[in-house]
TrEMBL record:
Keywords: DNA-binding, Transcription, Transcription regulation. It comes from Paraburkholderia xenovorans (strain LB400). Gene3D superfamilies: GntR ligand-binding domain-like (1.20.120.530), Winged helix-like DNA-binding domain superfamily/Winged helix DNA-binding domain (1.10.10.10). Transmembrane segments: none annotated. The lineage of its organism: Bacteria, Pseudomonadati, Pseudomonadota, Betaproteobacteria, Burkholderiales. Residues 247-264 have a biased composition (Low complexity). This is Transcriptional regulator, GntR family. GO terms for molecular function: DNA binding; DNA-binding transcription factor activity. InterPro entries: GntR_C, TF_FadR/GntR_C, Tscrpt_reg_HTH_GntR, WH-like_DNA-bd_sf, WH_DNA-bd_sf.
Length: 279
């Protein structure tokens, strides 16, 4: 996009200036007028159009970068770019909650098992031959990898890709992100406790694929449950700090917060924002 002068921004008058800037940028994302890869106007231009100081803009950009909304690049073609969405931010947030004691490893593993049940059921309903072929290719790759220490990292990586491919067979991007995030956390837990090759699970993978192809959710979920039981056995993290445990105990009786309804993205109308292009 060439002309970012068309970006409609409002003067900031609140005390927490950088938060208001972040809200406006997020609003443009929600409306579809900003999308992945778009470049924000230069810091100087943003300060003029927001009617704020450059340090306030700088603070807002840092906040958006930490949140995973933008990526700050340096150099001749640098600037603030809207990032491609991924599961990384969700993974980091849950890992922090684990460290703070707000989440337990047992709760996380249980949630992973429950979400995989949903994934298996939907994969049985929606999976296509292309999905099954991708899973089959993944299993053959795992079979070719040995159990040596040198090949273990590649085997673990391929093993977790197996779960992602099943999630992709649901054709639901939210479930794919959830599975990716939970898998990343479990993979870190396995790294802490010591990863070991489990060649006996290859047969389970083949049976699971067989039942997915046959669209038999009951048998497929049984295989997945047994599979995860083996993988999750013995996984744990460091105990939560005493203060965090006390806080968790004090809030455990409270009702869970209501889920925020999923907002529908508006159509990308153009005119409100046109970022520079570095093509």
């Amino acid at each position: 996009m060439e002309n970012n002068d068309q970006l409609e921004l409002q003067s900031i008058k609140t005390k927490r200036v950088f938060e208001e800037i972040c809200l406006q940028i997020r609003g443009l994302l929600a409306s579809g007028n900003l999308s992945t890869g778009d470049k924000l106007p230069p810091e100087r231009d943003l300060a003029i159009r927001f009617n704020v100081s450059r340090p306030a803009v700088r603070e807002a950009l840092r906040s958006l970068e930490i949140s995973g909304i933008i990526e700050l690049k340096t150099g001749a073609k640098g600037g603030a770019f809207i990032r491609d969405g991924s599961s990384g931010l969700l993974t980091r947030s849950m890992q922090d909650l684990l460290l703070l004691g707000s989440l337990s490893s047992d709760g996380l593993l249980e949630a992973r098992e429950l979400i995989h049940e949903i994934v298996v059921r939907l994969a049985c309903e929606r999976g296509e031959e292309a999905d099954w072929l991708a899973i089959e290719k993944n299993i053959r790759e795992i079979e070719k990898l040995g159990s040596s220490k040198e090949e273990l990292p590649a085997r673990v990586k391929a093993g977790f890709m197996f779960f992602r491919l099943i999630a992709q067979a649901t054709h639901n991007e939210v479930l794919v992100i959830l599975i990716e995030s939970l898998s990343d956390i479990v993979r870190a837990m396995i790294d802490q406790t010591g990863a070991v090759a489990r060649p006996e699970l290859v047969a389970v993978r083949w049976r699971l694929l067989k039942y997915l192809r046959a669209r038999d959710p009951r048998k497929a979920m049984k295989e997945m449950s047994g599979f995860l039981g083996v993988v999750h056995k013995g996984l744990s993290v460091e105990p939560a700090p005493p203060r965090a445990r006390a806080r968790a105990a004090a809030t455990s009786a409270k009702a869970p917060a209501a889920r925020t309804p999923r907002a529908k993205s508006g159509a990308r109308t153009g005119g409100l924002f046109d970022a520079e292009s570095d093509k």
